[in-house]
Automatic annotation (TrEMBL):
Catalytic activity: tRNA(His) + L-histidine + ATP = L-histidyl-tRNA(His) + AMP + diphosphate + H(+)
Similarity comment text for this entry: Belongs to the class-II aminoacyl-tRNA synthetase family.
The protein's assembly and partners: Homodimer.
GO annotations of cellular component type: cytoplasm
The entry's keywords: Aminoacyl-tRNA synthetase, ATP-binding, Cytoplasm, Ligase, Nucleotide-binding, Protein biosynthesis
Annotated gene: hisS
Recorded GO MF terms: ATP binding; histidine-tRNA ligase activity
Signal peptide positions (record): none
Protein name per Swiss-Prot or TrEMBL: Histidine--tRNA ligase
EC number(s) reported in the record: 6.1.1.21
Record-annotated Aminoacyl-transfer RNA synthetases class-II family profile domain positions: 38-335
Subcellular location(s) per record: Cytoplasm
Binding-site list for L-histidine: 92-94, 122, 136, 140, 267, 271-272
Amino acid sequence: MTEKVATPPAAKLTAVKGMNDVLPPESASVEWFESKVRHLMARFAYRNIRTPIVERTPLFVRGLGAVTDIVEKEMYCFEDRLNGDPLTLRPEATAGVVRAALEHSLLYDGGKRLYYMGPMFRHERPQKGRYRQFDQIGAEALGFPGPEVDAELILMAIALWAEIGLTDVRLELNSLGQPAERQAHRQALIAYFEQSIDTLDEEARRRLYSNPLRILDTKNPQMQSLVNAAPQLLDFLGEASLLHFGTLKSILDANGAAYTVNPRLVRGLDYYNLTVFEFTTDRLGSQGTVCAGGRYDYLFEQLGGKPTPAVGWALGVDRVLALVKTADGLGTTAPLDAYAIVTDAAAMPLVLSTLQLLRVAGLSVQMHASGVEGMGSMKSQFKRADGSGARYALIFGSDEIATGQVTIKPLRDPSVLQVTQPLADLALWARTLQSNV
C-alpha cells in the first residue's frame, strides 16, 4: 500500500508590495476626483489622450536621460518574449504622449491641449505617498511657445485646488533657462562644488559631473549651507529667458495667484527648460510635492521629431486625495435611490423587468438576490436595504404581486409617507424622484 504524501498548502496570493488594491468605498474617492478633473479639463479645452502602459525602453532612456534616477534605478524593464524587444512599464506619461504625437502627426494642424489619467510604475521602496504603482493625472500643451500657456496650466491647477477644496498648497517657480545658459551654470556649479568635495555626500559626488543640478535638490541637512550658497541659475539667464519668466509672473500677478520664486527648484528629468514649477504642502512630510511641471521644448527633438515647444504638469492622485479626504462628498458614492425587497423568488421575472424600467428612467436600484440561504426573511432584507444607504425600499410582497402593485417605503426621511401604488405608475414616480434631487 502506497503511503499518501501530504500536499503542502498553497502560498497565500497577495498583491505585489507597493501595488495596492483600491476597494469601495475608497474607490469612490478616485471616481469623485477624476470626475472633477474631467469637467475642469473640458472648461480649459483640454482633450483626453490614452497611451500604452508598456513602451519600448529606448523611449525613456532618450527622453528622460540615461543618468536620471528613474532610468538608472526605478524602471520595470523586461524583454518581449516574441521578438526580444526591450520593454518598460511606463514610469511617467509625458514621453509617451510626445511619442504618440510624433507617430500620429498629431500637430500637423496646430498645437494641441491634452490630458491623461492612469497608472505609472517605478521600482522603488514603497512608502506612504510613494508606491510602485501609482495613478497620475497630467496636462500637456504641445506646440505653444509662449509664457501665457505656462500660466494657463498653472492657473488650471489652481482652479482644480479650488474645485476640490484644497487650500494649504503653495506654488514655487523657477526658470531653467535654455541649454547654453544651463551649461554655463553647470560649469559654475562643478567648479563651486569641487572646492568643497569633502563636504559632498556619496550621492552628490556621483552626480557632480553627470548631473550637478540635481545636487541642489539634496535633502542632506549637512549639505544645506553649501547648497544655499551655490551659484544660482537665474544669474545666468539671458534676455529672452528673463522676459519669458517675467511675463509668466506678471500674468500670475494679474490673476491673484500667489507664488514664491525658488532658485533651487530643479527637475529630475533632462527634457525641461525655461519655466518649472511645483505645488507643495507641509502636510505630507517628505512627499510634499503634490503637482509638478514645466516647459520641455527639446523633448520632441530628443525623440526624433522637429523642434516643438511644449509645457505640462502631472499630479499624484494618492497625494491629492490624502489632502482632501475630509472634503464634503469625497469617499462616498452617489446615494442609492432604491433597494428592492422580494419575498418570493418566483416573482423575480416581474421584479427584474420593473427595476430595468426604473434604471432606464435614471434611478440607481439594487435588487435583493438570493444566496445560499435563500431569499431571507423580510426583516433581514430590510436590514440589508437600510445598510445599502438607499433612500427607499421597494417591497414586492405576495399581496403586492397579486394586485400588480409595489409598496414604496422611505428609509431616510420620516416625514415622507409609505405608499402602495400600481407598477404601471412607477415610471412617473421615478421621474418625480429625479426632478426633486
